[in-house]
Amino acid sequence: MSSSTRVMLVTGANKGIGFAVVRDLCRQFSGDVVLTARDAARGPTAVQPVQAEGLCPLFHQLDIDLQSIRALRDFLHKEYGVLGSRGLDVLVNNAGIAFKIGDPTPFHIQAELTTKTNFLGTQDVCTQLLPLIKPRGRVLNVSSRRGFKALENCSPELQQKFRSETVTEEELVGLMNKFVEDTKKGVHGKEGWPETAYGVTKIGITVLSRIQARKLSEQRGGDKILLNACCPGWVRTDMAGPRATKSPEEGAETPVYLALLPSDAEGPHGEFACEKKVEQWQFNSQL
């Protein structure tokens, strides 16, 4: 392999939406598609049915912690020659968790674990891998419209902070850490937070995407990289359950659309998309 090989990478992709995204990308993308998963055994198992279709996904283990992320970064350096040039054409951050409604796990533990995986894990992946994105590359952070609902249920003060056009990544991390600390103290309601750890982390992902896109425009504007967040919809997965309205293949449509935006596309950039359409970062009562 060399730096001339085109490569896409999808996190949390051994099942559900991530797996469907990998399968679609393998069908439509000329290059390597790397499927990552936390479980070193389940990843290769997930690759097998795609290979049986005559497609050629690759597997690399990735747990959403710094040691594992850095190991993946080093693998990309080694395999794709990115020591002298950037090496990723597309990065899809799909990995995430959600506790079931009615789960007896104390809310502060749900908040801490969900924030660690969904928000801080995604931030760490971006910190390590965004420098590897090639000019005209594409980055997609899978968020959710549940973040819109959660934002609507935040206090006016929190809403203003999350919707600010000048909020920094450091300030955003501070807000997310405050959410966790407030749940541990049992004062999150008083402090203006909604009763949904998943929703708050998806606020964080959407705002993080806006910040990252702004940074890319400032620091690498000439590279024409497009970075966005999206909602796949309500998808029948282990997370959402069997009553959801979309199949994983239907849920993959918007992520794949954004991942494969033409090389000459000027946008969207720093936006939130659902059903292949940009939605304004505003109050919205729909999930």
Question: Which helices and strands appear, and what pairs or packs with what?
Answer:
Layout: E1 7-10, H1 16-28, E2 32-37, H2 42-52, E3 58-61, H3 66-80, E4 88-93, H4 107-129, E5 133-142, H5 146-152, H6 156-163, H7 169-185, H8 197-220, E6 226-231, H9 248-251, H10 253-259, E7 272-274, E8 277-279
Parallel strand pairs: 1-2, 1-4, 2-3, 4-5, 5-6, 6-7
Antiparallel strand pairs: 7-8
Helix pairs in contact: 3-4, 4-7, 4-8, 5-8, 7-8
What does this structure look like?
With 287 residues, the chain is of the alpha/beta class. It has ten helices and eight strands. The chain has helices at residues 16-28, 42-52, 66-80, 107-129, 146-152, 156-163, 169-185, 197-220, 248-251, 253-259, and strands spanning 7-10, 32-37, 58-61, 88-93, 133-142, 226-231, 272-274, 277-279. The chain has an eight-stranded mixed sheet with strand order 3-2-1-4-5-6-7-8, sandwiched between helices. The longest helix has 24 residues, at 197-220. The chain is globular.
